[in-house]
Write a sequence for this structure.
């Protein structure tokens, strides 16, 4: 004889009843069947009715929860395989959301800066404003006798890592020409599990609002970029907040991005 609990677990639900119990519309359940996210336990060959098992109610609730967290259908399908797969897909969704927040925050910063202007007819085309995301970096710094000595810092940086960098790289200028002795640090974005040797240090380069220009990676053009940013900072009454940054542009070889972290001055 089949026990009552076992009988309840083997009972099959037609799609309308399953929809009422899960809160998912019938049309959505049919769609999830078609894309193989939530297949019925059985299909009646004679009538074509979809039949769901009672234990699929919990699966349906997981699907709803994952979709609310922003997972795409292919990610939900993978997440349902096992808990490690779900954690991996949740991480992917979290990183995608973080990138979206950074992008929207950048738009908000630009809107605030635009609204703070007394003359909206004036456009500072060369200068962009954005929220630079935090980056975990390996870095090595020193005082330099010449700007070209930065290349030696990059050589030391690469030799001191147990694996290549995985993201943006550049220079933090703590003191530039005209401000006394040159002081700079080369850095590269790395995974947090990276190990460093020698004089290298590991730290998080903090998220910060930056004014930025892109220029050809050439000394004369870079100096024009620095001058544009200095003038822009002075004109708007903003204060420098941290070392100036130079970063390569991976998608555009031969181009350089110069950024000034800044604290906005009070509107006039």
């Amino acid at each position: 004889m089949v026990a009552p609990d076992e009988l309840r677990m083997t009972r099959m639900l037609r799609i309308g009843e399953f929809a009422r119990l899960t809160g998912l519309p019938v049309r959505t359940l049919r769609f999830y069947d078609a894309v193989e996210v939530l297949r019925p336990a059985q299909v009646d060959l004679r009538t074509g009715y979809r039949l769901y098992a009672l234990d699929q109610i919990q699966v349906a609730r997981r699907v709803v929860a994952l979709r609310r967290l922003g997972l795409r259908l292919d990610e939900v399908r993978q997440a349902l395989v096992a808990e490690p797969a779900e954690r991996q897909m949740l991480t992917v969704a979290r990183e995608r959301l973080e990138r979206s927040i950074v992008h929207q925050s950048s738009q908000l910063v630009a809107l605030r800066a635009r609204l703070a202007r007394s003359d909206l007819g004036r456009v500072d085309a060369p200068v962009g404003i954005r929220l630079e995301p935090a980056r975990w970096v390996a870095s090595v710094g020193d005082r330099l006798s010449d700007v070209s000595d930065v290349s030696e810092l990059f050589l030391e940086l690469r030799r001191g890592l147990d694996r290549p960098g995985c993201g943006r790289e550049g220079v933090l200028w703590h003191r530039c020409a005209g401000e006394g002795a040159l002081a700079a640090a080369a850095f590269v974005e790395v995974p947090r599990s990276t190990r460093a040797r020698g004089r290298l240090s590991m730290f998080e380069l903090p998220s910060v609002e930056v004014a930025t220009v892109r220029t050809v990676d050439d000394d004369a053009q870079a100096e024009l970029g620095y001058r544009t940013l200095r003038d822009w900072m002075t004109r708007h009454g903003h204060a420098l907040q941290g070392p100036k940054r130079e970063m390569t542009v991976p998608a555009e070889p031969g181009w350089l991005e110069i950024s000034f972290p800044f604290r906005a001055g009070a509107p006039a």
In short: Residues 83-115 form the longest helix (33 residues).
